[in-house]
TrEMBL record:
Protein name: Bacteroidetes-specific putative membrane protein
Keyword set, alphabetical order: Membrane, Transmembrane, Transmembrane helix
Membrane-spanning segments: 274-293
Domain of life: Bacteria
Alphabetical list of InterPro entries matching this protein: PorP/SprF_Bacteroidetes (IPR019861)
Amino acid sequence: MIQRNNIIHLIILILSIVGMDGVKAQDASFSQNYASPLYLSPSFTGLTEGSRMSLHYRDQWPNIPGTYRTMAFSYDHYLADYNSGIGLQFYRDDSGGGLLVKQNVGLLYAYEIYVNEDIMIRPGLQFKLAQSFIDPNKGYTAKAYNPAGELIDLTALPVDRDKVNNFDAAASVMLYSNFYWGGVTIDHLVKSDEAFTDVTTDTNIKFTVFGGFKWVYKEGRRRMPDQSVSFAFNYRKQADFSQLDLGAYWMYNPLNWDCGIEVCPQKMPRDSGIRMQLLLFWVFILVTCGWGTHLT
């Protein structure tokens, strides 16, 4: 068993990476955070017994052509003999109907450390190959005047390359019990240039803090599971973008009521002095089959 001092050193090492700088960028986010657990944190890899698959697809503003489509697929498995979880994840984000596509495929690993009978710590890692594509024929910079004084459309976006390949990594740590959980995830640990021109544009580090607790208001009897309400939060920060999700999950088998609120304070460029804030409220009902429990 790993000593507690080593656990503390590991957590400090992961948190110390937060001080790294980068330029402005933003990853896609999902309202249903725990529907795609491996995207939230590598520490969730192999959290359930046996194997698990997850598929998350979002089509934003589907009636408008050339909008945003995001997909995340993952598979993970718990190795009981090694107190470990292994997983595979594929992520794809299509902006503008193929104008800009970002995708990656990665391997995940998490190790389960028993602090005592009730509390466990799960450090996790992810290593991934990332690709970015751009179709300059689907985007135009603006209109301009030609030498004859006529207003014309500019040609396709000027780029030096239409594909970028990079290696990336993420690290996380999570502490949890049967009634509460909390963790930290740091993504884009590898500094790499993802620009399509000769101007260097580094991927910005994403910092995520999540957690919550479960309140069992009625214990289950016989084969009936517990009836509970879980309260959760998820805070993300990447460059000047930050978002806070607050949610509540009511579990009454076979119904799982999921409602929450998202607060997105968005800063504009520093010299503009403008600050926007988006408030989103969502409700989700899930009907489950079979018996079992999960983190939330």
